[in-house]
Amino acid sequence: MRIMVVDDSRAMRMIVIRTLRLAGFRGHTFLEASDGDEALAAITADPPDLVLSDWNMPKLSGIDLLRGINAAGCKVKFGFVTSESTPQMRKISGAEGALFLIAKPFNEDTFREVLERYVC
Prior knowledge:
By secondary structure, this protein is of the alpha/beta class. It has helices spanning about 10-20, 35-45, 60-70, 85-95, 110-115, and strands at about 1-5, 30-35, 50-55, 75-80, 100-105. A five-stranded parallel beta sheet has the order 2-1-3-4-5, sandwiched between helices. The longest helix has 13 residues, at about 10-20. The protein is globular. The model has no long low-confidence stretch (mean pLDDT about 95).
């Protein structure tokens, strides 16, 4: 399975990938994008199986990335891993088609519990 991690912080991308591996999601290909623009170009060219995106990023936010993916007609599993998780953000993300919103701080148990139904 190809999993893309989108976050403007390289350190956070590394933490997310490390946490995925600690949660038992090994043997997958991890792709990275440093902002929504870079992710949208990569996803529309060659869609991964799952996208884990931050919400707040320069250039193109996570929710605008999701809207761009939808507008392009891409069918990709999408969820947020973000520091904010207001009820309004959860409502908007769900309405746009996000499968989940994992709030920071997180650990491998959180990832395992939320992602096991989406990661094969």
